[in-house]
Amino acid sequence: MTTPRQRYRRGRLAAAFGGLAAATLAVTLAVPAAxxxxxxxxxxxxxxRYFGTAIAASRLNDGTYTTIANREFNMITxxxxxxxxxxQPSRGQFNWSSGDRIVNWARQNGKQVRGHALAWHSQQPxxxxxxxxxxxxxxxxxxxxxxxxxxxxxxxxxxVVNEAFADGSSGARRDSNLQRxxxxxxxxxxxxxxxxDPGAKLCYNDYNxxxxxxxxxxxxxxxxxxxxxxxxxxxxxxxxxxxxxxxxVPSNYHTxxxxxxxxxxxxxxxxxxxxxxxxxxxxxxxxxxxxxLSVARCTGITVWGVRDTDSWRASGTPLLxxxxxxxxxxxxxxxxxxxxxxxxxPNPGNPTPTPTQPGTTPTPTPTQxxxxxxxxxxxxxxxxxxxxxxxxxxxxANTAISGWSSTVTVRQPQRIIATWNGSPTWDSSGNVMTMxxxxxxxxxxxxxxxxxxxxxxxxxxxxxxxxxxAS
Length: 471
Ligand code: G2I
Known about the structure:
single chain; 471 residues; alpha/beta; eight-stranded parallel β-barrel; four-stranded antiparallel beta sheet; 17 strands; 30% helix; 23% strand; globular
């Protein structure tokens, strides 16, 4: 008997050996990094997924909060700061400050950002609530264009339109001032977003769309199918996934995610929280993670807050950390499930490094930097996807050392979007990560230790350069 995780690891190693004879030694050294991830982001990254959280700007000066957020998550959503009322409080006057705080914190810590949300019937600024007709349509499109343009290049995916369908059995659009501007308001918003930031994935995001049998799920599915058929630029569907005893995780969740993915869009779990406690809550979390991991185009999971006390429904204790920042049973079940591995996120694009400039090759020279003479850092390739690749750095102590640090420099427009097995810090450019050991860095002469990371390459497959210094 082999577990899916073992099968996945074997396939991954076989692929690595097949394509990389010259790097055989390095690949061998990379094996320890394939060990179980010890954080949510590390465990998710091994199958090519992200693990994210919603962040509130007002909590960024809370050290417990930022320590957990930084350690566990590599995709950040602003819980409220990028909504229409926050971004454009007065017509034509944009307030970027709170949104920027979150985006800057994420980028400085090597994380990606999901933008939330460009157009929504709720959280509209007062001036917009009073508008209708073509005046409102113009104002909405202008908002989408301005906000998506301002953050162009910094957003992994935008929730372009949020919660546009009615609850219940009608399968109809939700009545709202935006809907009353005409049924095509959603596709108009997507087209404006694409024009403003062609590099961001564009998502439709909603709740109560988890159960495949529900009319609302079917209605959203039919809209996405129609958009794909008519070339409306949609790339992904977000499932908010706010669950409780009255709205439990449906047994057909996997079917829902797979059916949407089969339309040719990514699916993402965007605002996960599950009210409850103990093993019952843990089991439901595990089921959600398992459903995502079994769908190749389910690219990541975001929980809607860090600790229970940070939640919009704190009394339901719906998150993975308690109010003191302790890991709950739900955390452990999510981590364990992520470490079971899953269907790797597919790699439809270029699986091998290609020269990024005529006449240059992507420097497959293992970078060796003797630093203080005490250690050497060696790069080895990990899994590759069309938009990112994993790498491992192996630190070798040349003599007995009591500590080490290693810099990893990537080239623009590359960005490191996930790390594991170490404590990273970043320079202001975001291109240079300095990795230090999470615990003691003491190594005996000849001993090795490895850390890993994911590089979003943006078309540049060049290997990072390394240094190592020992103390
Ligand atoms: O309602 C849960 C989520 C459903 N999907 C869309 C999400 O955007 C939504 O998030 C929640 C936030 O978690 C709450 O924090 O959206 C609420 C409404 O926008 C947020 O609540 C608002 C309160 O209504 C405001 O009174 C408060 O000033 O949070 C604000 C900031 O704390």
